[in-house]
Amino acid sequence: MIGQKEYKKRRDKLAKSLSENSVGILFSASYRPRSNDTEYPYRQNSNFYYLTSFKEDNSCLVIVKTTKGVKTILFVQAKDKQKELWNGKRLGEKEAEKIFLVDEVYAITNLEEKLKKFLQTSKNLYFDFGLEYSKMKVLKRYAKGIAVHQNIAPLVNEMRLIKSVAEIALIKKAINITKKAHHKAMSFSKANKNEYELQAEIEHVFKSNGAYSDAYTSIVACGNSANTLHYIENNKPLQDNELILIDAGCEYEYYASDITRCIPVNGKFTEVQKELYNMVLDVELKIIEMIKPNMLRNDLQKKSEELLCQGMVKLGILKGNYKKLIKKQEHKKFYPHGIGHWMGIDVHDECPYKYDNGDEIPLRKGMVLTIEPAIYIDKDDKSVPKKYRGIGIRIEDDILVTKEGYVNLSYEIAKSIEEIESLSLS
Questions:
Q1: Which residue in 242, 346, 349, 372 is the catalytic one?
Q2: Which of 138, 240, 261, 414 has the smallest number of CB atoms closer than 10 Å to its CB?
Q3: 64 strand-pairing partners
Q4: Which residue from 60, 55, 32 is spatially nearest to 127, judged by alpha carbons?
């Protein structure tokens, strides 16, 4: 778990990046309607959670910075027995004051009154430019005299690039639970089953191990379905002799995991499947080996495209000189996405990839990113040898950048053909 002292350090660090005589404001997330009067399960705004650890809606963090110093104020939903009867207990001001290391705590009903006072002497207002309209109206009402409005989200997102020891521990916990889920999927008898039955097995493991939410909607894509990158229907039969692409990861205490494995329905890879799988696996292993401080993600991307294109030429999927093919972007039809992304509180962490001047941010100790090369060959693509059509393969791991190189946080999740078959046939 992450202690309150760490959250306070984050708020202090954010305050240092604000100009003097300024107010910074972050709001909690709102409930999202599912249909009519029902709602999706609540999840806190990631930046708000990163700075507070507070999981309730209808709350707000305000940082006031003057020449005299910095003051942090938390606004929370007041206790209300009638509302709590329907929607659950609230922490309230008194308990919040005991837990969170902020200077003041008020009921959210006092926000507009206090905000008006804070903004009277301020020259700069920092808030998330992606605010929903109702909250934006509140700010604009009292910020008419403030000429400078700045987006606070990029400041927080940049802080989130480097993970603390406590954050890495939570990511490891999420990955460990996800390992159990993927191994369950490998060993689960898949004959005469459907994609959604396999999804249910995976998500049962998540919840039974304390991860109450997936980090994203699980992808369980059998056969040609794997060639739809964001396939989430998960409603087709598991066909014998086909591969299943499983992209699934849980969220543990707001920290994500993101793992993709490809497994055979009947437990045994065909020779053709082995050719493609080992080609992608070889690329993934080589790219992971490149990871170290000061490495650029763009260089990892270029190398992954080069290696995959070479592999496709060798297998006869593409024809010609691989350098010319890359120049013409011929390989992009089969590998259209990036080599990976930042991961943390969000499975696709909203951390920046470039500095303000446009230069790419190099890898640094404490960053966590995914590595996920792939090949997607649609069943109707007649430019490709028939034996390869309808196969989609992606292999994805979660990598921590260290002082001298990297640690593959998900190395324990079976990945070689031998490991997967051993679990599948046990």
A1: 372
A2: 240
A3: 23, 71
A4: 60
* Rounded distance between C-alpha atoms, residue 26 and residue 219, angstroms: 33
Tens-digit pLDDT profile for the chain (426 aa)? 899 999 999 999 999 999 999 999 999 999 999 999 899 999 999 999 999 999 999 999 999 999 999 999 999 999 988 888 888 899 999 999 999 999 999 999 999 889 888 888 888 999 998 887 667 777 777 777 776 889 999 999 999 999 999 999 999 999 999 999 999 999 999 999 999 999 999 999 999 999 999 999 999 999 999 999 999 999 999 999 999 999 999 999 999 999 999 999 999 999 999 999 999 999 999 999 999 999 999 999 999 999 999 999 999 999 999 999 999 999 999 999 999 999 999 999 999 999 999 999 999 999 999 999 999 999 999 999 999 999 999 999 999 999 999 999 999 999 999 999 999 875
- CB 373 within 8 Å of CB 339: yes
Are residues 162 and 366 in contact, defined by beta-carbon separation less than 8 angstroms?
yes
Q: Is the pTM of this model over 0.90?
A: yes
Q: Tell which CATH classification among 3.90.230.10, 3.30.470.20, 3.10.20.740, 3.40.50.300 matches the domain 165-424.
A: 3.90.230.10
Residues 57, 167, 305, 396: which is the catalytic one? Answer: 396
Catalytic residue status for 348? yes
